Amino acid sequence: MSLCGLLAMGLLVSCGKDKRNYTETEFGLNMEMVYVEGGTFEMGATAEQGNDYDEYEKPVRTVTLDSYHIGKYEVTQAQWKAVMGTSLKEKRVLSTYDGSIVGEGADYPMYFVSWDEAQEFCKRLSKKTGKKYVLPTEAQWEYAARGGKKSNGYKYSGSDDIEEVAWYSGNSYDYGTHRVGTKKANELGIYDMSGNVEEWCSDRYGTYDESDTDNPQGPVNGSYRVRRGGSWFFSALYCRVASRVITHPDYSIFDLGFRVVCLP
Description:
- By secondary structure, the protein is an alpha+beta fold.
- It contains 7 helices and 11 strands.
- The chain has a 5-stranded antiparallel sheet with strand order 1-2-5-11-6. It has a 4-stranded mixed sheet with strand order 9-8-7-10.
- The chain is globular.
């Protein structure tokens, strides 16, 4: 019986309330989801970031989040094809970029994905499963990248040594993307939150509101969205857990993908 069937019979709680990790099997996805226990953390240019920050990461604020699940890996090309029906090559043709493919394979992260297309992926997956799949908020993304309640206060997701956890310009500029999960995981067992491909968040872009601290969703108005985590194309500066990049939601490029969150 499917997870949805078990949920309907009351034999399982929803993904957001179940404290176990689980694997989403609809569409044949084999999408591993990691439980992130809610808690309180300092968000933004905290001390371990040193001088490698910009004003977009301030002011540092204390944020409290409810529990959720997040993808163990970035959404892969196989998972995208299963839900959306298009291949990486087809997406490249439709993207704002006309260059070459920079990493292709079933277990490579999907890229050439706009914010709107990532939202459509979540919508289709939610409809099929009966669960609530969404893009992470910036706060959810950063909390998970920092290791949640298990955080060791690292500069990058899982280490202060970027070579341990990230594919970035210093070790992969000539090669493009890499298979997901080939670097060290962070404290929660999540991979590639630093490097490989950048990741869309749901929020509109804006300066941090010090008063918006309880499950913040970002600004109500604004045309731009946020991407996080850096990529194989960018320097270590952009792979930090606090780094933010402003982007138009229509934008799609060779190093921009996403991962999903499941809510109660």
